[in-house]
Structure formats: C-alpha cells, structure tokens
Amino acid sequence: MSKKHLFKNFAVLSCAAMLLLSGCQSSPDTAKDSSQTPATNSSAETGAESNTDTNKDTNKDTNKDTNGDTDKTANTSAETGDNITVTDARGEISIPANPQKIVDISGNSDILSVLGYKVAGTANSDAYDYTKFPSYLEDVLEGASILGYSMQDTMDVEGIISLEPDLIIISTVQEKMYQQLSEIAPVVILELAQTDWKEDVKSVAGIMNKTAKADQWLSSYEEKALKIGEEIRSSYGEDTTYLALLASGGQIFIFDKAGIGSILYDDMGLKRPEGMPVQENISLPVVSYEGLAQIDADRILAIGTDEDLASLRENPVWKNMEPVKNGNVLELPSSPYFNQGYSCIGRSLFLDEASSLMEKLK
C-alpha cells in the first residue's frame, strides 16, 4: 500500500477492522475478519488477469534496471565505506552513501525500486492480506522479507535484526520504534505527503540523493498518462465523465484526489462528473446511495471485495442509476486495485491496462 493517506483512507473505510493512524496498531487478521478479501466476480477476474499479465512484464523491466543500479552503488559502498548526512523528519542523520541492505517499513519500497534499490525487508504487503505482496509488486519485491504492513506502528523486530540491514527506513507511523531500530542500523524517518504522491517520490529521492532519477521517472510517467488519457478521450468522447468508487462495509467512498481517482483526473485528464464531492483532506469522501445517484457520471469504476460488490449490485438505488442500466460499470477487485492507486509502480501499471479496461465498458 503502502502511505499515510492510504492508511487514513483504509482506516476510515474499514473502521471496524483497523485502528486509526495516530499511534494505533492494526493486526493482519482484522482485514480478514472484516471480509476484505479480493473480489472474484467475472468482471473483477478479468481485470485481475489483465493486471497480472501487465505487471509481470513491467516489473521485470523495473527489476532489471533496479538490480543494475544497486550492484553499481553497492560496490562503491563496499570499497569506500563513505557516509553522507541527510535531513529527515527528525533532523540530520548520517547514513551509508550507498546502502547495500535496506529494510524499508515505511511503505515506500516501490519508490526505492524506481530509484534503483532492491530492499531486503519490506512492509509493502497487501492491505487485504498482510502475508503476501500486492500482485503489482510481486516481481519488484521478490526475495524480500515481509516484516508487517506499512500502516502498522510496530513490525517484526526479530525479522529486521536477522536481515542485518545497513539502513532502515520508517515513516512517522512507526516513530515509536525509532530508538529500538536505531540500535540495529541508521534509521531514516519519513514524513509523507497527504495526497500528493509525487511529493513522496521526490522526498524519498532527495534523502537518497536520487533526485535526477526521480525527476526522469516522473516525467516519463506524466508523458505516458497524458498520452493514454488523450487516446481514451478520443475513443469515448472529450466530455465523457468517469467516476471511481470504493464499496466497503455498506458504504460508498469516492476517489477524487487520491488513489485511482487521481490517476483518472489529474494524470490522464479525464473529466470529473457533476455532483461529485470534493476531497478536502486525506480521507475519501463518503456518500449515501441517494447521494451517489446525484453524481452525473457516464462511466463508473467500482472497486470492492466480492461481498461488497455483490451488496452494491443488489441495492435498488444502484440498479436504477443510468450507468448501471446502460452497462457502463466496470467492477474491479479491491486487491490489487485499492492499493495500486497509492503506489507509483501501481499507478504506472494501471495506465498500461487503462485502455483495455475501458474497452470492457459499453
């Protein structure tokens, strides 16, 4: 998943299953208890298969570049033993100039991969099953040890020790572990942006002295997003509106400035529908079914578990909405698509399959 905003959103939409971000701990079992398992309806299965195929090719390419960069920097570190001083959320800290064995529990292992690092330990586990990687990060994180979920405030300390890291990266979520982890290796603590994922990429890159590489990756991403957005608008109309929602626990959450929504609107330039609530902070706006019916969307992407999507389909207000009656709803499984919108690699992979996903709509 993954980021601070991801946890806030996830905590809100499964409040019975997870505790709030402010210093509280969640357990892997809570997500399972709240029926948050991947959807398996026919539309969702099709999306998942498309996502998996795309991920394998793209992630292999990412890993090839990553491993090459990591090998070069690792050799330099081994030969020189140089340290650099960086500024994190707590102030200045000395870290290896070219770390060879990074443990990242901040949820930014995807960003580190883009910057040319392969982590030894990670907390980028699936929000719906903490024991595995999200499908879109399986290749990138292959071989890494799962130490927890990035929005938990405690992790597997023994697992971290066993990896013998030369650098540990945490976020403010795990700040209470700082002193304990500092006895193992230098610890960088990150303060993550609320809704601007690009700022997170730049922040991590700045600390790791990889700003140029981050800028290059972001530029390539932005160019790809605009190109695919133009293709979709050309195929389905400049004025066609799109709505991305999450069905969870009987509630409807609207993606606007975060997750899949920000890919559609901010990155691809697709049109927001009239009547859509504006996201004012890190939490996803919640609407009633009656409020949802007032949103004038032409096409809907509905994300949820198998159970939540089944409940959505049975709601009489939902059944009477024009996009639903016209067959313009695409159902996507919450794993991987919920997390995916909060990951830089996940967003890029979503772009790769966006056109084929849109073809499934009428």
From TrEMBL:
Residues 26-50, 77-86 have a biased composition (Polar residues). Residues 1-31 form the signal peptide. One of its GO terms (biological process) is iron coordination entity transport. One of its GO terms (cellular component) is outer membrane-bounded periplasmic space. The keyword Protein biosynthesis does not apply. Pfam families: Peripla_BP_2. Belongs to the bacterial solute-binding protein 8 family. PANTHER family: IRON III DICITRATE-BINDING PERIPLASMIC PROTEIN, IRON(3+)-HYDROXAMATE-BINDING PROTEIN FHUD. This is Putative siderophore-binding lipoprotein YfiY. The gene is yfiY.
